[in-house]
Write a structure and sequence with these properties.
The structure is a single chain. By secondary structure, the protein is of the alpha/beta class. It has one domain: Alpha-Beta Barrel (TIM Barrel), CATH 3.20.20.70. 33% of the residues lie in helices and 17% in strands. The protein has helices spanning 18-27, 50-59, 78-83, 99-108, 154-168, 185-190, 200-203, 215-228; strands spanning 5-8, 33-38, 65-70, 88-91, 112-117, 135-139, 173-177, 195-198. An eight-stranded parallel beta sheet has the order 1-8-7-6-5-4-3-2. Helix 4 links the parallel strand 4 (88-91) and strand 5 (112-117). It is globular. The chain binds D-xylitol-5-phosphate (DX5) and zinc ion. Zinc ion is lined by residues 9, 34, 36, 68, 177, 197.
Length: 230
């Protein structure tokens, strides 16, 4: 069973103080930096690219960076993110004409690869590529914005993907993204997720001047996670 990872989504961080924000979240016990890339084409919002990923590495962030591509197409930008220090690169299968090639490209560039499924995207894209995956990310909101509510039917999808991972016999992380908070994280973990993106719940916590302001939210997420395996 994989160890639980908490993945702060920097989409909800204060971009003017991004390095500090990421440090504070990691200091509070978060495990992996979730990096949301949006192109105002695949999703109706525009965020950050490889330069910002590289800037975080130069600033001194050593934790894994989990790049979630919400862009179309994906192949052109993959090597740039690998060079910029990405650890995981995940993309939406419907945003690539050649899913197998894009997965291979991520691996050839030395990163771990994953596929992302929108709430209503069917799982059949997994059928032939399980042996190429290090991560499967299920969206529990429609991608594009932080602060939306968790869509409950994704719990069934998590259970289904967990079965597929178990049947594959491979160590593939199962990540959930959207609307995760201390009230629902236990149920989400029970459905099979081991990696939990938290954007607004985490970066919205505490007072901006307090460097320890994420301790209590990360602590509550962890407490709830511990109960799910008690
Ligand atoms: C949405 C992004 C998420 C988002 C999650 O498209 O992929 O990572 O930041 O934010 P919350 O946790 O606020 O739902
Ligand atoms: Zn994301």
């Amino acid at each position: 069973m994989n160890e639980f990872w908490i993945a702060p989504s920097i989409l909800s961080a204060d971009f003017a103080r991004l390095g500090e924000e990421v440090d504070n979240a990691l200091k509070s016990g978060a495990d992996i930096v979730h990096f949301d890339v949006m192109d105002n084409h695949y999703v109706p919002n525009l965020t950050i690219g490889p330069l910002v990923c590289e800037a975080l590495r130069k600033y001194g962030v050593t934790a894994p960076i989990d790049v979630h591509l919400m862009v179309k197409p994906v192949d052109r930008i993959i090597p740039d993110f690998a060079k910029a220090g990405a650890s995981y690169i995940t993309f939406h299968p419907e945003a690539s004409e050649h899913v197998d090639r894009s997965l291979q490209l991520i691996k050839d560039n030395g990163c771990k690869a994953g596929l992302v499924f929108n709430p209503a995207t069917p799982l059949n894209h997994l059928d032939h590529v399980m042996d190429k995956l290090d991560m499967i990310l299920l969206m529990s909101v429609n991608p594009g914005f932080g602060g939306q509510s968790f869509i409950p039917y994704v719990l069934d999808k998590l259970r289904e993907v967990q079965k597929r991972i178990a049947a594959s016999g491979r160590n593939i992380r199962l990540e959930i993204d959207g609307g995760v908070n201390p009230k629902n994280i236990r149920e989400i973990a029970a459905a099979g997720a081991d990696t939990f993106v938290a954007g607004s719940a985490l970066f919205g916590a505490g007072k901006p001047e307090d460097p320890n302001r994420y301790d209590s939210i990360v602590g509550s997420l962890r407490e709830e996670l511990a109960k799910s395996r008690a």
